[in-house]
Protein: Epoxyqueuosine reductase
Organism: Methylomonas paludis
Amino acid sequence: MPTTDNIDFNQLAQQIKQWGLDLGFQQIGISDTNLTEAEGYLQDWLAAGFHGEMAYMAKHGLKRSRPALLEIGTRSIISARLDYLPTPQPDSGAVLTDKAAAFISRYALGRDYHKVLRRRLQKLADQISTEVGEFGYRAFVDSAPVLEKAIAAKAGLGWIGKHSNLLNRSAGSWFFLGELYTDLPLPADQAVSQHCGDCTACLDICPTQAIVGPYQVDARLCISYLTIELQGSIPEQLRPLMGNRIYGCDDCQLICPWNRFAKLSVEADFKPRYQLDSRTLLELFGWDEAEFLQKTEGSAIRRIGHQRWLRNIAVALGNGRAEPEVLQALSEKLANTDALVGEHVDWALTRLQERI
């Protein structure tokens, strides 16, 4: 760690915030490492089994809620916000109401955000190093056991809403978060107050009622979990509720009143690739594995693999219209696929044939 005698850390904190803006972040905040309250919420959430198959949420012990256990020497955390909304919100609503269209969570339409944020955080760390000399730090973007929303809330970037997403009064919730754990004794910012009030729009709109109470999400019911994290079969009782959502779900964000203040991202990397914001389910169902890998290169979508991609689309097709081309595509896939995809294709065919 650099000697602190000749460093004005209050001034440095202000410089860091300006450097962050210069690098294209929309906001930078600083927090301490005391996450005691968040630790209690996390332990209760895990004890309730709300994490489902996400074993990684529990396996690191207290490292997630005690930053200095994860990165020894951490004294303060720099939290960064980067807006990502790639298309106007009414466009998303139009896709959701079109049963032939494929809905992909807005964050995944463009380039993988992990890479974009990590590069930018590294540039910020380099700038700090230029100013103060070598210092201890580690950058995180969903890459380790980090309570990013609790940290961002402590850093004054917003408050955690009833849907468990971070909300900002001037930006809504369409943004990514990244962190720099540092060994610098930077002054912490003030947390902001909560502004959800009596609103329950996110609880009411959730297709699967995964928001089981204010600030409580049962991931096992969440469409984002079902389409991304769940490895095996999607529970049959939840399939009809998924509609045409094939990768993630944005309903709770689309309905949130605070998102009327959200701004479209200026980042070219977050613009939709391969027209993924306007593709039909049949078009995407027709991608073989090679095409899937080619068109999801550099995308967060690739992590689910081609098998789960087809699984998710099969469910969405089963929730759509019983059109001849849909029945044909499902029948052809059923004759040449593995057990997981076949199960969901068979379900979709049975569901559609009941409507004929």
In short: The chain has a mean pLDDT of 96. The beta strands are 27-31, 76-83, 103-104, 137-140, 159-160, 166-167, 175-182, 211-213, 216-217, 245-247. Residues 12 and 156 are 17 Å apart (CA to CA). The radius of gyration is 22 Å.
